[in-house]
Amino acid sequence: MALLAGIYTRLSYADDGTLERIERQEADCRQLADRLAWAVSEDHVFKDPARSAWQRNRKRPGWDSLLAALEAGQITAVLVYHGDRLIRQPYDLERLISIADSKGVRIASPSGTRNLDSPDDRFILRIEAAQACRESDNTSRRVRRAVESRAAAGRPHGGRRPFGFEADLITVRSVEAELLASAVDRLLSGQSERGVLRWLNSCSTTSTGGEWTGKTLGNLIKSPRIAGLVAHGGQLHPAVWDPIISVETWADVTALLRRRAEANPYPGRERKYLLSGVAVCPQGHALSTKPVGGRNRRNVKLYWCRTPGCPTRVGRNVELLDAYVEGRVLRVLQDPEFIAEVQAPEPSVAPEIEALQRRREETRRQLEDLAEFPDLDAGLLARTLVGFDRKIATLRARQATSERRRLLQRVAGVGSEEWADLPVDIRSETVRALFAVTVLPSARRGPGFDVDAVDLKRLPLD
Q1: In terms of Cα–Cα distance, which of 112, 8, 136 is closest to 63?
Q2: Which residue among 176, 195, 229, 361 is the one 20 to 30 A from 165 at the CA level?
């Protein structure tokens, strides 16, 4: 009975021209099939571009489809450019032997033909698979050592050009670096991620020419590269390139993004109004906006309490309330005493929090593995965990105060024109940092604005 063969091709890396090289493998297999007089099934040409055969947990769709076709009896032979394209782990060979057992499956490559029914051929294939596995292990070890050495020396390992750097991965690209530093500054100043993304997309693209997304921006900012650091094996090494932002700023912004993600998994809508969710009614319910309605008042909006059952149900004209609150805010921001007070430096506590969290996790693991360490005191470990939680909570409270102070440092001294140019979410966070805004019921009727019906309670800095 004539053999019906499938073709399998694979490459470990996806550099330029990957498809062409896979096609060359296929062409060589077809020439071999002609010499062996094997018929090739056009429905069974399997390709795994950029797939590792050495990593057992790496998915190989083409390989899985090949095994399924052999098991179903759709093909009875396999053509492959070289044996190491097909198998680099003894585990893979045993799977193939198990499926092909007693089916007379043949494997052919330019280096020779094997019959899986033959004990001698199986013996040789097992030796070849073991040698290939050892070669892969040795290569992996050399690669790991090279990566560790480069990381310890602060040099890049490779990859595509990151935003803010030239193609050599070391030279800072000044225009992009300024944009990145400004994006970090905006986040630390209270602007939402949506707002920062909108701004970035209005003035730049990513390093690959694409549109900025939350994931793209988050991955870039969380990378220690922008702080002049190289991460490897849980350690940070000083890099050979200049930092775009300081290590302290990087620690603060990554902590900020992490807290925002924990507190608000869904980013929500982009802010449109200054006091939505900031101003409250006398019962403490956050105010939202609504149109007034009416033929002659279509463009008028109100801040109002929409909480069902609220006895006050206050409302206030958006434009007039914004103008009044912003006037009070600008008066504070331009006060020389306030500027002097807010400019006092505040050290970052983010590195201290990170260190405590790592120690807490180590203690928790010890507590979980207590059966293996009977000499450890369970009560002491439990009390230690409580102590860590208490210290971390205290530091996070200090961190929140530091972020508020940092926001106010960035806007201290601004004039009315500069204030108007700030994104609305930064202006909103500034109001929140300076005042508790409560809208009271007003007994006044008619035109004008009742300033006595707005309670602005100034908040202390610390």
Answers
A1: 8
A2: 195
According to the model, what pLDDT value does residue 274 have?
Answer: 92
Q: Which domain holds residue 424?
A: 271-335+412-462
Q: Based on the domain organization, do 193 and 256 belong to the same domain?
A: yes
CB 200 within 8 A of CB 181: no
Q: Could you give the angle at which helices 193-203 and 174-188 cross, rounded to 10 degrees? A: 160
Give the chain's domain count. 4
Q: Are residues 193 and 92 in the same domain?
A: no
Residues 457, 436 contacting (CB under 8 angstroms)? yes
- Record the tokens describing residue 202, joined without a space: 């209005």
What does the pLDDT look like over 127-148, one tens digit per residue?
Answer: 877 777 777 667 767 767 777 7
Mean pLDDT, the chain, whole residue set = 80
Average pLDDT over residues 291-314: 78
Q: What is the Cα–Cα distance from 423 to 420, expressed in whole angstroms?
A: 8
Number of residues that make up the chain: 462
Residues 277 and 247 in one domain: no
CB 404, CB 169: distance < 8 Å: no
pLDDT in tens, 168-215: 999 999 999 999 999 998 888 778 888 889 899 999 999 989 999 988
* Coil vs helix vs strand at 14: coil
In contact, 93 and 83? CB cutoff 8 Å: no
**Largest interatomic CA distance in the chain:** 102
Amino acid in position 149? S
Please, how many CA atoms are within 13 Å of residue 65, restricted to the half-sphere of its CB? 13
Which candidate, 170, 171, 163, 166, places its Cα nearest to that of 203? 163
Is 438's pLDDT higher than 70?
A: yes
DSSP state letter for 170: S
3-state SS assignment for residue 10: strand
Q: Output the 3-class SS for 28-69.
A: HHHHHHHHHCCEEEEEEEEEECCCCCCCCCCCCHHHHHHHHH
pLDDT at residue 395 in the model = 61
Give the DSSP H/E element, type plus range, for residue 231. strand 229-232
Residue type, 8: Y
Tokens of 456: 């602005």
Q: What does the alpha-carbon distance between residue 152 and residue 140 come to, in Å, rounded to a whole number?
A: 18
Cα distance between residue 404 and residue 435, in whole Å: 12
In whole angstroms, what is the distance from residue 5 CA to residue 203 CA? 55
Are 182 and 237 members of one domain? yes
Quick check: 14 pLDDT over 80? no
> Which H or E run includes 393?
helix 378-411
The closest alpha carbon to 336, from 282, 394, 413, belongs to 413
CA 230 to chain CA centroid, Å, is: 17
